[in-house]
Design goal:
504 residues, alpha/beta, 5-stranded parallel β-sheet, 4-stranded parallel β-sheet, 30% helix
Length: 504
């Protein structure tokens, strides 16, 4: 057998499949399998070594961005290799671009930025479809893929961004990969993949009024810790999960990586199928009927055994905010900042002490007393139309407090058009928010939306690490509705204390 000239192992090239041909299922077909096991089994070309958890995995699709792909394309160029199936990739510009409206009036901006211009060249030369800065569908990768119907039940999707777990909301296995893996995938449509253990997180009961999917996943992360799901693929189950919208399920799968999960899944159901029916690139007609027959089998079998299980009562969850520098350093808004001295684990105690020092906060402080300088609504976690509607419902007839700089960044041009058609942009502007063009924006400090040292931001994003929004910046994670409430109050506050209003 000839060896693979990408990874120097004897397994890839002889097994490459041709487009349109169904892959053989060579996984370990045990009875009573979990949904995760079914997805891995159906995409396993072969186990790699006896007694090893590694398999050669077929990957259906990827989404590329200008930040994580340059080295992969450079590797392909230097080796003279083509992209094996260009049609399996979609490319978007989202990380480094400006979200200021004037970018649209400056077509030179994309050419002037080295990362964006190299990305445009790579996509042109390798035949990959690109939604560049001026494309009418441009937006954040994990917003654009679902709205096109490219995230489908049963697929395996790997991409150079850790929040690729978002696609688990559709019953697809999504996970982040490194640059060398991106190169390997582009050249072979395969990856060397280590199977994960299975974890079930069951959220039973009903979420109380005013509590969202963002609060749910933040409560999960707080409960199990930032490494609580390490080495696992998580399947979310229970009545509270089934009651969530598809956008809510995307939020929980997106942030599952913040508790260490390398995969996150919700079994597809009628909500999933209804969401996909009108998406422009999802199957239609007879193809949809055939797909539905298969999609309805994508669930964990009765009697399947999970390696770990966590159970949470939905009725106990309150609106959540973070106080520290890790997503698990969070608490209900009605609570106070905990005292690190009461932490039993020396490592966690040290982490909490460092976090409070960085955040400039003291134990015992009421979370609702923490003042903010900025409010940000956006990111691949919470910049969909449902998120903007929730924030607008809080902001209608209200205004951001004096001294609070507030911006809202739709997740895509499509979301922006929908919001403007509903008049949400007018509500945001009247409330003192800037209405921006799509992009990752203030989620991470690699563009021109940066928080100054020592300033504090109420943010609908997914990470609150040191320097995440700028060197010395201080980030408090929460839902879009809670960000809107904080902007109005000028400090962290419980959105349930504000009189509910509607954006229509």
């Amino acid at each position: 057998m000839d060896s693979c000239d990408i990874c120097n192992a004897q397994h890839c090239r002889p097994l490459l499949d041709v487009p349109g041909r169904k892959l053989p299922n060579r996984g370990l077909m045990a009875d009573n399998r979990t949904l995760y096991d079914k997805l891995v089994d159906s995409h396993t070309i072969r186990p790699l070594d006896t007694g090893s958890d590694e398999v050669l995995l077929y990957v259906d699709r990827t989404v590329l961005n200008e930040y994580t792909s340059p080295q992969a394309f450079t590797g392909l160029r230097e080796a003279g290799r083509p992209v094996f199936r260009p049609e399996s990739a979609l490319a978007v510009i989202d990380h480094v671009n400006s979200t200021r409206p004037e970018r649209i009036a400056s077509p030179q901006a994309q050419a002037d930025d080295l990362q964006m211009s190299y990305f445009v060249r790579n996509c042109r030369d390798f035949g990959i479809e690109l939604f560049d800065l001026y494309h009418r569908q441009q937006g954040i990768e994990h917003v654009v893929m679902p709205e096109l119907g490219l995230a489908l039940p049963g697929l395996v999707i790997a991409a150079g961004d850790s929040h690729t777990t978002t696609y688990g909301a559709f019953g697809a296995l999504g996970f982040g990969i490194g640059t060398s893996d991106i190169e390997h995938f582009l050249a072979t449509q395969t990856l060397v993949y280590r199977r994960l253990r299975n974890m079930e997180i069951a959220v039973n009961g009903d979420l109380p009024p005013g509590v969202t999917a963002k609060d749910l996943i933040m409560a999960v992360i707080r409960k199990i810790g930032a490494d609580g799901a390490q080495g696992h693929a998580v399947e979310f189950t229970g009545a509270a999960i089934r009651s969530l919208s598809i956008e809510g399920r995307m939020t929980i799968c997106n942030m599952a990586v913040e508790c260490g999960a390398r995969g996150a899944l919700v079994a597809p159901d009628e909500k999933t199928f209804a969401y996909l029916r009108d998406k422009p690139r999802a199957p239609r007609g007879d193809a949809l009927d055939a797909a539905l027959e298969n999609w309805r089998t994508l669930r964990t079998d009765e009697g399947a055994v999970f390696n770990a299980r966590v159970e949470i009562a939905a009725g106990d969850i309150e609106p959540m905010v973070t106080w520290g520098t890790s997503p698990d350093q969070a608490a209900p808004i009605s609570d106070i900042i905990p005292d690190p001295a009461r932490e039993a684990s020396p490592a966690r105690r040290k982490d909490a002490e460092r976090a409070l020092g960085y955040m400039g906060l003291s134990p015992g402080t009421r979370l609702s007393d923490i003042r903010i300088d900025h409010a940000f609504i956006g990111s691949c976690t919470n910049a969909r139309i449902e998120d903007l509607r929730a924030a607008a419902a809080v902001l209608k007839g209200r205004h951001a407090a004096p001294g609070v700089s507030a911006i809202v960044v739709p997740g895509s041009r499509e979301v922006r058009r929908m919001a403007e058609a509903e008049g949400l942009d007018r509500i945001f502007r009247q409330a003192g928010f800037e209405w921006r063009e799509p992009g990752c924006s203030m989620c991470l400090a690699m563009n021109d939306d940066v928080i100054a040292p020592g300033e504090r931001c109420a943010s609908s994003t997914n990470r609150n690490f040191e320097g995440r929004q700028g060197a010395g910046s201080r980030t408090h994670l929460m839902s879009p509705a809670m960000v809107a409430a904080a902007a109005v109050c000028g400090h962290l506050c419980d959105v349930r204390t504000l009189e509910p209003r509607h954006a229509d």
